[in-house]
Design goal:
- It contains 1 helix and 9 strands, in the order αβββββββββ.
- The chain has one helix at 2-20; strands at residues 39-45, 60-70, 75-81, 85-87, 92-94, 96-98, 115-118, 125-133, 149-153.
- Strands 1-2-8-6 form a 4-stranded antiparallel sheet, with no helix packed on it.
- A hairpin with a 4-residue loop joins strand 4 (85-87) and strand 5 (92-94).
- The longest helix has 19 residues, at 2-20.
- The radius of gyration is 34 Å and the shape is elongated.
């Protein structure tokens, strides 16, 4: 019985000592980050003209697009570099890319004359591209292609 009383008192003493030492200490923790300007092209949809008949008097039109995103409030310039001629290896088939469906404004091929803007937010932005092969080009049969480079300068 004496042992039981001693053990009970020890348990009570240990429990009370934990309550008596319930103090706190605090300190500030600083957190920081630097957000940098950034842009990236996130996707492209090819301009596929299909069949072209050089004896037809009609232009051949097709469309594609590209998607890019920039950090909010970032100024950017858009242009597409590369020769505006497809090749089959030895022959060239000319085409042009426009920024409007009416095909009146040629999409710039260099920074000089680039399309400029400022990103309103971090969301993706898609720009439509309108291609045209002019009628009546004197080319032989073949499979023509060209790879261009979409550029977002910021």
């Amino acid at each position: 019985m004496k042992k039981l009383i001693v053990i009970t008192m020890l348990v009570a003493l240990v429990a009370m000592s934990g309550v008596a030492m319930a103090a706190t200490a605090t300190s500030s923790l600083n957190v920081s980050a630097t957000v940098t300007k950034s842009c990236r092209v996130t996707g492209t949809t090819a301009i596929s003209f299909g069949n072209y008949d050089p004896t037809d008097t009609s232009n051949v039109d097709a469309a594609g697009d590209f998607t890019f995103q920039c950090t909010k409030n970032t100024n950017y310039s858009l242009y597409i570099t590369g020769t505006r001629q497809m090749t089959d290896g030895s022959n060239n088939l000319g085409f042009e890319i426009y920024s409007d469906a009416g095909r009146s404004t040629v999409y710039p091929a260099a920074l000089a004359g680039a399309i400029t803007g400022t990103s309103a937010n971090n969301s993706p932005d898609t720009k439509n591209l309108y291609g045209r092969i002019s009628a009546g080009q004197d080319v032989p049969t073949g499979s023509y292609s060209r790879s261009l480079t979409v550029t977002v300068e910021y």
